[in-house]
Inverse folding.
């Protein structure tokens, strides 16, 4: 039935438009309807995204559900969207978490709710755009769009130091992305210099032969933008402030979805575009060491935070450290693990911020010492809180374990000592999480104001239940997730390894000699036939259309 | 031989899980309702109680005045409201035990050689890594399953009486059922990864049950400590798994054990590393030096929890791990000698602490640590069956002793509760003469004491003696001198065991009663639901050793009354034959005499005589001593004080590890995060603002600050990359 409706051709576009329409509707509609409208539109977007899970073909590494429309063709800019296994999981994480975050905000956001929910929906479009864009210009646009609503969400609906936090967030990320823009433009002009054509298409730029030096510099420019987003030590200090000051739904989205953008960037751009740089031992070691610092440093600093939200913010630094290790280990288990850590962190940290938000609504404080003994008065809350904390520290049988275990065992294959140090993180995780659990839920209930704390209500249970279910599902039966991303990652690793093994070559000569041939081939680049979703037509494999560039440039390995 | 197909193997583990879901749901619903009731009927905020009169732990609701309030509002749990947990909680475990028995008899007749693996689903299939959710049934996992569900059933039944009046009754059974589920996953899991699921799962349940009365900060602390210390061990387990996978390409037992002898050289570095890391995990879970510190604190949980988790099952998981990995340990003599050495050291060290403790559960806790040490001596010297044998008999008599102490504490607590006396119901100095009030508990506990002390013909005599004997018999190869030392240590610890257990019995049950005149009237024997499990365990503590009577002892005069039946050895043979083969191929034949001469039968007789002599002597000495109630007693002086304070190990750990890490954490946050990074960012910001102010006032300082700082950071990183790369 879906096929007859042409689902594969419009699904992603619909996902981008639905929240945008929702934003318009919220702005036009009445103040008191805003949250219902936002919830409805984000839920519709989620429903539209569900068939992606079922109809995505895990057997091919090609981009699927593609569509392409000329946008500013004179600059080679096209509306190009499509997803592979990596984006599939992250898109679904996004569409699933937005309705939850919105429902979780129902009683939290008291003022200017029209503007708030409009911002949230704009944010959803921005994030989804980043995950589905196959045109670097478009990617960059969504990347920047995303910052604006987040900036206002923190700055307007945030806590006491919201202005400081919002500006810190904005500038950290904006500055990082500026260098990335330079990098993108470099690739664009390089492509033009080589082929005479203008293109921002991901598939085109992927074929660019780059020298070591070029790769290093471009790697640096892109990596900085992504490292800030992840965040990787020492670019993480925006995160605790942003998390603490952001309103609950802002924190949820920030932790659950926005932190995944950096890692997504690593996988989508850094590894395939700059394979030699990404696999250079020194660079890998730098990334690994930074990941290790994140794991240990994040955990230790988290352990001494008096503010519960800040504590969870630092644990994100630790969790994302595992992601960095898994990715740069460049083994299948490692990257699979990184993917599961991302999803698991999205669910568990999302749930954790929702829970802390619920506490904040009841008591208007985030200080751990203001609680104690809550398990006696709010057993339902306590049960979910303990469970979420356990997922966060990687208890087997939950998603947290599957992710960390795979990331570590994958890292161990190529960098055993790094994995050994990182595994110490399982001890540190207990060291930061359990004392907080104890101080909030256990011990004697000494504060009279906590004595009448109401337990979770129906709406809150509805918000948390899907997250809990997801964390158990992914922990007990992660295979559906693993297999959907399997071929994508296998191909990615193969490609990176093959390309990084190629020797560099002087560029100028070959291009001059082969230029006529390329000119004959490359004009076919704009993708116009993506509607049927067949992989070959969308050119996911480097050899299908533009492989000539590489082949003619002397590599030859791509000619399969 | 008959063909054997497992019957409902999955159901053995699933049943307790169902019990957890039912009891857990019930507990949450009830707790919510009682809290809602409290809010509805009590408009004025109730003053929370912060000080609780006495550190009695037998009753949650007695610990905290606030608990009383909630409890009173929600009605004292009447018979009807405890009906479902009472039926479901023990019921699922008993059912699991019945299914396990059916499987056992099927297996018994079939003479199974290869393990049976039932695969349920693919858990983590990633490239060359293939981890299945699968159960492996063989002689070892069968035995463990019987112990867990059998002893577990008895302890669950006992808990009906022990916990009935606790407001967290349903929650208690939810945790206990969950524990049994994870413990079964641990022993039935077909590979290291699934075993690790159970491994951490039981740790979680231990954490929840130690801190069951979470309102008491000390108990919550104890739970946390158990979890964190265990995580140190789990680190080792994980690294061990990583090493196994990267060298053998698999994590399931069948593949690993088959591939190991041909992959690893005897005594090779990799297999030594694997086994040492696995042993780190085992030392955490089984409370061995240096990770034993959590177990004494774990006594904060309800006493049946101590019996099930911290004596009979979970803490033996480390021994199971070593026995399960017997091939790997047999290939790594250095690791094996380490296991045996740590075991012997722990057996002796913990026994010294047990000598002077006054808390009845503390004595049993250190005794457990000491007995676990024995088991590690057994599996460390390569006598895997002997280690597992002691694991089994220890499960019987230590569960008996803990439940017996639970009955005592229950009675003591009732007496103190009735008279509103804040005295410590676990302090043996407050007991004395209890045999008049609790004769069944008294007799069964004496049986447990004689069993653990190694008195013929009780279970402990056979299992402990076999370990001590094997330590001597296997004193061959390059580490021979060390085996002699371990043999002496094990012998010494056995004598201490006889001493501290007799001391415990005399202080508790004999002499004059010290509970108090008024309180004495309230002392009485526990209900049948509690003493019947004690009697069953007492019977098992007597006959449990008879399944494995060595031939030399069976041929002795007087003591040779029991027939020789090295049944357990034959039963476990298929599991450990490969390890024996590795041992025989690389080390050679066993010695058949102790370092100082004498055969197995001779030393069995000697140790029996020694144990009896120590018991008699101790009884004589302790009987003559006049103990005062706890609050009138003088603190110990001299070396006794050092022992009483457990050699100050907790204090040393606190000073050397805990505090430095806390300090470092604080330092990192203040000086690196806020000082260095944010300080640099802000500092550059101020400088930029100064420039900006001088130049023009078009820009806000903030904007420049971060832009400038971040660009600078980026350039630094890039420079680093480029310079490092070339």
């Amino acid at each position: 039935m879906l096929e007859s409706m042409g689902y594969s051709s419009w699904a992603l576009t619909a996902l981008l438009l639905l929240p945008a329409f929702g934003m318009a509707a919220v702005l036009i509609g009445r103040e008191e309807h805003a949250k219902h409208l936002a919830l409805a539109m984000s839920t519709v977007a989620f429903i539209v995204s569900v068939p992606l899970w079922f109809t995505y073909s895990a057997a091919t590494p090609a981009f699927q559900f593609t569509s392409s429309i000329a946008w500013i063709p004179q600059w080679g800019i096209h509306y190009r969207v499509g997803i592979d296994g990596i984006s599939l999981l992250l898109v679904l994480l996004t569409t699933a978490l937005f309705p939850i975050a919105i429902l979780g905000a129902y009683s939290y956001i008291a003022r200017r709710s029209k503007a708030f929910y409009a911002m949230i929906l704009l944010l959803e479009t921005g994030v989804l755009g980043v995950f589905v864009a196959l045109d670097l210009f478009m990617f960059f646009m969504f990347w920047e769009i995303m910052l604006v609503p987040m900036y206002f969400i923190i700055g307007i609906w945030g806590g006491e130091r919201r202005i400081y936090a919002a500006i810190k967030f904005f500038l950290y990320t904006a500055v990082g992305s500026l260098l990335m823009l330079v990098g993108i433009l470099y690739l664009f002009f390089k492509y033009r210099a080589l082929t005479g054509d203008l293109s921002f298409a991901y598939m085109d730029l992927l074929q660019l032969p780059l020298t070591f030096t070029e790769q290093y510099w471009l790697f640096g420019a892109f990596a900085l933008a992504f490292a800030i987003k992840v965040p990787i030590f020492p670019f993480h200090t925006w995160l605790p402030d942003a998390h603490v000051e952001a309103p609950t739904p802002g924190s949820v989205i920030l932790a659950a979805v926005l932190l995944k953008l950096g890692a997504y960037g690593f996988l989508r751009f850094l590894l395939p575009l700059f394979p030699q740089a990404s696999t250079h031992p020194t660079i890998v070691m730098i990334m690994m060491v930074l990941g290790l610092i994140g794991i240990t440093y994040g955990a230790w600093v988290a352990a001494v935070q008096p503010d519960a939200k800040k504590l969870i913010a630092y644990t994100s630094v630790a969790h994302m450290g595992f992601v960095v290790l898994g990715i740069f280990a460049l083994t299948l288990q490692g990257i699979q693990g990184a993917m599961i850590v991302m999803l698991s962190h999205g669910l568990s940290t999302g749930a954790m911020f929702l829970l802390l938000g619920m506490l904040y609504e009841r008591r208007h404080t985030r200080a751990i010492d203001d609680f104690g003994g809550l398990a006696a008065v709010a057993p339902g809350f306590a049960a979910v809180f303990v469970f979420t904390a356990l997922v966060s520290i990687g208890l087997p049988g939950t998603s947290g374990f599957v992710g960390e275990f795979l990331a570590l065992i994958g890292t161990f294959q190529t960098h055993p000592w790094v994995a050994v140090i990182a595994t110490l993180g399982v001890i540190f995780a207990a060291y930061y999480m359990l004392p907080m659990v104890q101080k909030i839920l256990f011990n004697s209930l000494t504060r009279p104001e906590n004595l009448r704390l109401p337990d979770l209500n129906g709406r809150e249970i509805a918000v948390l239940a899907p997250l809990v279910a997801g964390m158990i599902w992914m922990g007990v039966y992660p295979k559906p997730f693993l297999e959907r991303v399997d071929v994508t990652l296998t191909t990615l690793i193969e490609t990176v390894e093959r390309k990084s093994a190629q020797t560099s070559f002087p560029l100028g000569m070959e291009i001059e000699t082969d230029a006529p041939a390329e000119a004959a081939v490359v004009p076919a680049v704009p993708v116009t036939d993506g509607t049927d979703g067949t992989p070959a037509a969308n050119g996911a494999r480097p050899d299908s259309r533009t492989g000539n560039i590489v082949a003619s440039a002397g590599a030859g390995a791509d000619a399969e | 031989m008959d063909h054997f197909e497992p019957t409902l193997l999955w159901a053995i583990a699933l049943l307790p899980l169902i019990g957890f879901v039912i009891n857990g749901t019930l507990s949450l619903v009830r707790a919510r309702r009682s809290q809602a009731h409290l809010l509805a009927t009590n408009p004025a905020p109730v003053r929370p109680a912060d000080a609780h009169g006495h550190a009695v732990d037998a009753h949650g609701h007695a610990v905290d005045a606030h608990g009383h309030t909630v409890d009173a509002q929600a009605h004292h749990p009447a018979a009807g409201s405890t009906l479902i947990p009472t039926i479901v909680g023990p019921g699922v475990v008993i059912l699991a035990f019945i299914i396990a028995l059916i499987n056992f008899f099927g297996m018994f007749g079939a003479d199974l050689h290869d393990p049976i693996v039932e695969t349920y689903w693919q858990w983590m299939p990633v490239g060359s890594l293939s981890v299945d959710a699968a159960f492996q049934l063989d002689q070892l996992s069968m035995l463990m399953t019987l112990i867990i569900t059998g002893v577990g059933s008895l302890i669950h039944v006992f808990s009906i009486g022990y916990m009935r009046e606790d407001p967290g009754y349903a929650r208690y059974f939810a945790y206990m059922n969950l524990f049994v589920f994870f413990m079964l996953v641990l022993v039935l899991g077909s590979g290291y990864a699934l075993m690790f699921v159970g491994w951490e799962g039981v740790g979680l349940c231990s954490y929840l049950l130690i801190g069951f009365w979470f309102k008491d900060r000390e108990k919550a602390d104890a739970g946390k400590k158990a979890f964190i210390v265990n995580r140190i061990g789990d680190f080792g387990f994980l690294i061990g798994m990583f090493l196994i996978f990267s060298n053998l390409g698999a994590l399931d037992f069948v593949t690993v054990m088959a591939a190991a002898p041909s992959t690893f050289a005897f005594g090779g570095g990799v297999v030594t590393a694997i086994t040492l890391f696995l042993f780190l995990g085992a030392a955490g879970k089984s409370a061995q030096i240096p990770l034993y510190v959590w177990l004494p604190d774990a006594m904060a949980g309800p006493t049946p929890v101590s019996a099930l988790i911290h004596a009979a099952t979970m803490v033996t998981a480390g021994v199971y791990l070593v026995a399960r990995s017997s091939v790997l340990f047999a290939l790594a003599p250095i690791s094996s000698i380490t296991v045996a050495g740590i075991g012997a050291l722990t057996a002796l060290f913990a026994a010294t602490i047990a000598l002077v403790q006054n808390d009845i559960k503390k004595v049993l806790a250190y005794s457990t640590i000491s007995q676990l040490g024995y088991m590690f001596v057994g599996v460390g010297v390569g006598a895997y069956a002997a280690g597992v044998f002691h694991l089994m008999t220890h499960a019987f008599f230590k569960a008996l002793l803990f439940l017996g102490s639970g009955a005592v504490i229950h009675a003591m607590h009732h007496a103190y509760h009735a008279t509103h006396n804040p005295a410590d119901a676990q302090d043996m100095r407050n007991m004395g003469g209890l045999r008049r009030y609790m004769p069944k508990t008294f007799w069964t506990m004496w049986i447990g004491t004689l069993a653990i002390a190694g008195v013929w013909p009780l279970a402990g005599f056979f299992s402990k003696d076999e370990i001590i004997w094997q330590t001597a018999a296997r004193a061959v190869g390059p580490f021979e001198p060390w085996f002699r030392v371990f043999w002496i240590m094990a012998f010494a610890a056995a004598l201490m065991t006889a001493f501290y257990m007799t001391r415990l019995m005399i202080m508790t049950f004999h002499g004059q009663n010290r509970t108090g005149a008024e309180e004495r009237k309230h002392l009485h024997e526990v209900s049948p639901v509690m003493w019947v499990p004690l009697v069953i365990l007492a019977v098992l503590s007597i006959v449990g050793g008879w399944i494995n009577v060595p031939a030399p002892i069976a041929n002795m005069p007087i003591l040779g009354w029991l027939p020789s039946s090295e049944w357990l050895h034959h039963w476990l043979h298929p599991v450990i034959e490969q390890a024996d083969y590795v041992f025989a191929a690389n080390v050679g034949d066993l010695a058949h005499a102790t370092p100082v001469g004498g055969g197995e039968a001779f030393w069995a007789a000697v140790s029996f005589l020694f144990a009896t002599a120590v018991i008699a002597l101790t009884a004589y000495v302790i009987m003559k001593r006049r103990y005062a109630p706890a609050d009138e007693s003088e603190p110990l002086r001299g070396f006794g004080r050092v022992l009483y304070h457990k050699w100050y190990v907790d204090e040393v750990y606190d000073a050397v590890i805990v505090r430095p890490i806390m300090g470092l954490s604080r330092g990192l946050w203040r000086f690196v995060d806020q000082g260095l990074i944010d300080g640099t960012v802000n500092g550059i910001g101020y400088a930029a603002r100064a420039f900006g102010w001088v130049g023009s006032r078009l820009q806000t300082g903030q904007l420049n600050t971060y832009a400038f700082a971040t660009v600078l950071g980026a350039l630094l990183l890039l420079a680093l990359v480029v310079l490092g790369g070339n």
Observations:
- DSSP finds 28 helices and four strands in chain B.
